Amino acid sequence: MLPVGHNIAMNSSENSPLQANEVVYAGFWIRVAAALVDTVLLVAITLPLLIHFYGASYLQSEQFVQGPMDIIISWVLPAVLVVWFWRAKQATPGKMIFSARIVDATTGAAPSLRQSIGRYLAYFVSTIPLGLGLLWVAFDARKQGWHDKLAGTVVIRAGRHAGS
User: Fold this and answer.
1) How many of the other CB atoms lie within 10 Å of CB of 116?
2) Domain extents in the chain
3) Which residues pair with 153 in a beta bridge?
4) pTM of this prediction?
């Protein structure tokens, strides 16, 4: 695993070392802001689709799931989009805004498909105990949430150097 201050600087398009730069882990508040951006974008994509298929009454329904398209749009589509962004860009749009990217905690390379899917599923583990696994980012030396620890990933600030 990469210790605090470990040198990794990877070119995300080639996954090869560029130069020795100190790693700066993305902290709690940057990650919260990125998650808010991603949430707004996902709602902007999914809500019109849900209203298209189920009508405006979708918003007042007390049913947890209104049908097969609800599952596809509300659960499958976000998972596919997020994992695709992690694999293609090492970040979601929210993380990209803040120059943050997800890397393998051991090598600094792009996370594998297995790590990306595991990280997504581990979000559920992180949120179940009152979000403690997400709050963990604020207290961990490498700013890892439980989902990062379970998937073997860290979130770094690209182009940032320790002390800057």
Assistant:
1) 21
2) 28-59+67-157
3) 104
4) 0.82
